[in-house]
Amino acid sequence: MRCESISADVPSVSRPVIAPARWSVPWLVCRLATAYNALRRNVLPRNGANSPSSVSLELREIREFAKQPNDINEHLELIFTESLLIWPKLIVELGVRTGTSTFVFERVASVCGASIISADLEDCSSTSSHPRRHFFQGDDVQFAASFKDFCRQRGIVPSVDVLFIDTSHYYEHTLEEIQAWFPLLSPRAKVLFHDTNLRLIGRRRDGCVGLGWENARGVVRAIEKHLSITLDETRECTEYTTGWLVRHWPHCHGFTVLDRFPEASQLNART
Asked: Residue 200, Cα to own-chain centre: how many angstroms?
């Protein structure tokens, strides 16, 4: 099986413009933050040595890849380990761009024998050559409606074990994604959200600052709405609501993990 690309009519949904206007206050702040990051990374020593030989090849590759700073690099190892914990058979990646998250999911798929289905508005088919990776170009909300047919045509059971959402970051669109994709989750599914603490200037674990854009709490607000909970995305926290364990990390634009619990009837059937 080879990596393939399936396209659809590109809808009106688009990514936000994240480059501020030249000489505006956000532009000046970004310039100063970029200079600060360059100074800190070039002058101060970096933490950590080479990974020990006992660490798996996949984890060593991810740690090496994560040394290149970007808007998600501090979460790449977390994505790998959280995905491995449930040994997925099907990973769905909503939002690809340059393929940073795809790099991690390729290694999860290689360890677990999983299939990957990626979706993006742009043609990101060339970001991966993994034999069990399939790509869909188009609106991911619309894609959810035909997802089962898409899977069955490729011999894949349409039950999503790991769902990764990193798309527009708008509240309305994220809520639509949740409503469209959550019914397709397996009983033991895990959902990964990036950019759940997105703002113009944010904290990073390496001591630098992350540059983003103010999205009015779009992603985390959609999670709160769907689960009927309240989260303080500026701090690390754990919450429980019926059917879900919610864990959140505020650094590097924020990352939130939802672990699905089996229904009470399923638990009773096991005992």
From this structure: 19
Contact 137, 122 (CB under 8 A): yes
CA–CA distances in Å: residue 141 to residues 23, 98, 101, 120, 199: 36, 21, 20, 11, 25
Structural contact between residues 165 and 174, judged by C-beta atoms closer than 8 angstroms: yes
Give yes or no for residue 1 having a pLDDT over 90. Answer: no
pLDDT of residue 13: 55
3-class DSSP state for residue 116? Answer: strand
Alpha-carbon span 115 to 134, nearest angstrom: 8
Q: Is there a contact between 216 and 179 (Cβ–Cβ < 8 Å)?
A: no
Q: Taking the model in full, what pTM does it have?
A: 0.82
Pairing of the two strands 115-120 and 133-137: parallel
Domains of the chain: 4-8+69-270 (3.40.50.150)
pLDDT of residue 10: 46
Closest CA to 143 of 3, 10, 4: 10
Tens of pLDDT, residues 67-108: 999 999 999 999 999 999 999 999 999 999 999 999 999 999
- Tokens, residue 245: 């364990």
Two structure tokens written together for 238? 């754990």
Alpha-helical runs (H) found in 66-99: 76-84
